Amino acid sequence: MSSAGAGPGDVPDLSDLVRAAAGGDDDAFCALYAAVQPGLLRYLWAMVGQDAEDVASEAWLQIARDIHSYRGEGAGFRAWAASVARNRALDQLRRQSRRPAQTFGLEALHDLADGQDTAEQAAEAVSTAAAISLIATLPRDQAEAVLLRVVLGLDAEAAGQVLGKRAGAVRTAAHRGLRRLARQLDRQAAVPPPRPAPGLRTAGIELRRE
User: Fold this and answer.
1) Is residue 85 one of the residues assigned to a domain?
2) Would you list the DSSP string of 188-203?
3) CATH number for the domain that contains residue 63
């Protein structure tokens, strides 16, 4: 079973899948999982690092248990799933009392081309694992706003429901986060690539920055 069309911003409308899954359709629930899990996992990675998969599993268990009582539609399911996952992530952080793990270096980020708006380029980059790790270094409100809006595709109102904030505050936090991310990407792009060590055999290997 597939979702019906696409909503604003080319975010697929999950309404049909949500209704079917709430009625006990296992295939529909699997389709919901496939549609939402990738973005949800990136969001959780920025929050709890390498514990993201465990937290996501806990969140989906709760979603599976409670979906029969869910009454929202379409993109509202993403916001609901994000709220469930966020609560689980905050519980995890409280238990461990530590910051998210950082496992990717800035050298893994793609170079940015000249002549384009850096905030737009930053938004396009957040789907990469390295960029998710970089976003985790932003202030928490900015990181969550960027991830909810850009990675999960929530509008400002839905993201505000997840975070318990006004839509305007979410827009501001996301804008500031993207600008800060863009500045860090620009600094990284300005660093010249490392030279191979003398005597290093590189035949057949193209050395380039990524």
Assistant:
1) yes
2) HHTSPPPPPPTT---T
3) 1.10.1740.10
